[in-house]
């Protein structure tokens, strides 16, 4: 019996350490990779933040905040369209993604709004900005706008989280169960994410190699725990208070949805209307959750139309 108990204890120990072993096999972002990028870095309080600025040397600034699993490369197509329209476009990697730092800690909306604030301050961007938030970036954009609407001309929300987000049963369970949920997520998420990426590989995209960018993140140290932390502390709660604050301040809001989006379904539109009756909302037919890279031209056209309409209001 002692041998059986000892063997069982050993199995439990190995299983418990397996996520840590898999994490150590993943590669950290290297100095060479950061040297080879055509972007820049800002030393924010939780580590380096990687950014790029596209477009003309003069023009109104658009700042893009990406979502949960794909870094700022998700905006490559949209940024090119906006740049051709005369905008200067700032894209950057959230902590835990892309070439930015991978700090530990709870990835709350405040965690991310501080990163954005420090980035804008370091770049001395004092003019009024258009803030674009995609998916989880929509929740971050809403939190930032509620705090600092004086820095913004408007916000544009692309399939924004914080309303009717569908995490999935396993992700929802992992987010609500520290400890065992962490183990389950670290073991199950990489395989599930790869399967989801492969399922969408054939969908036309305006970002070349988007699937490779997404799968590449799974090989990065600190990525999986960052996704779980964001699920647990940013995506688990609705953003009602932030949106009601934005409505009270009168900041213009444009929300763009994909009609075929399974992650942020169209019923979220009614919630946004309830929280902010002045929000303008548009739906792109045929678009799923990946609308910034599958329908970048249409998204850019809607943003441009919003600016044109604003001039005539």
Produce the secondary structure layout.
Layout: H1 2-25, H2 31-36, E1 40-44, E2 47-54, E3 61-65, H3 76-84, E4 88-92, H4 109-122, E5 129-134, H5 136-147, E6 152-158, H6 169-176, H7 180-199, H8 210-217, H9 223-233, H10 240-249, E7 253-258, H11 268-275, E8 280-284, H12 291-294, H13 296-311
Parallel strand pairs: 3-4, 3-5, 5-6, 6-7, 7-8
Antiparallel strand pairs: 1-2, 2-4
Q: How would you briefly describe this protein structure?
A:
With 313 residues, the chain is of the alpha/beta class.
Number of helices: 13
Tell me the CATH superfamily.
Answer: Alpha/Beta hydrolase fold, catalytic domain
Number of domains: 1
| Mass-distribution shape | globular
Helix content: 40-55%
* Range of strand content: 15-25%
Core attributes:
single chain; 313 residues; alpha/beta; eight-stranded mixed β-sheet; 48% helix
């Amino acid at each position: 019996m002692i041998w059986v108990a000892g063997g069982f204890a050993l199995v439990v120990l190995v299983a418990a350490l397996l996520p840590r072993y898999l994490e150590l096999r993943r590669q950290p972002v290297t100095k060479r990779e950061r040297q080879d990028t055509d972007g820049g870095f800002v030393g924010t309080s939780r580590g380096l933040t990687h950014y790029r600025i596209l477009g003309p040397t003069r023009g109104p600034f658009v700042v893009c905040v990406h979502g949960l699993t794909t870094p700022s490369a998700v905006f490559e197509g949209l940024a090119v369209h906006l740049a051709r329209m005369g905008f200067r476009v700032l894209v950057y990697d959230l902590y835990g993604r892309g070439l930015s730092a991978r700090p530990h800690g709870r990835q709350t909306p405040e965690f991310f709004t501080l990163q954005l604030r420090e980035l804008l301050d370091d770049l001395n961007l004092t003019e009024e900005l258009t803030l674009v938030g995609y998916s989880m970036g929509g929740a971050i954009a809403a939190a930032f706008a509620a705090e600092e609407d004086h820095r913004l001309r408007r916000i544009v929300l692309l399939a924004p989280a914080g309303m009717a987000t569908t995490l999935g049963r396993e992700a929802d369970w992992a987010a609500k169960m520290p400890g065992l949920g962490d183990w389950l997520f670290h073991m199950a998420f990489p395989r599930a994410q790869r399967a989801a990426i492969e399922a969408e590989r054939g969908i036309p995209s305006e970002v070349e190699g988007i699937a490779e960018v997404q799968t590449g993140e799974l090989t990065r140290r600190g990525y999986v725990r960052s996704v779980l932390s964001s699920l647990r502390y940013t995506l688990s709660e609705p953003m009602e208070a932030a949106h009601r604050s934005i409505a009270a301040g009168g900041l213009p809001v444009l929300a763009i949805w994909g009609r075929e989006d399974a992650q942020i379904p169209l019923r979220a539109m009614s919630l946004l209307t309830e929280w902010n009756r002045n929000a303008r909302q548009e739906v792109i037919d045929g678009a799923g959750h990946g609308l910034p890279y599958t329908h970048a031209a249409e998204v850019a056209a809607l943003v441009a139309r919003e600016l044109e309409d604003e001039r005539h209001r």
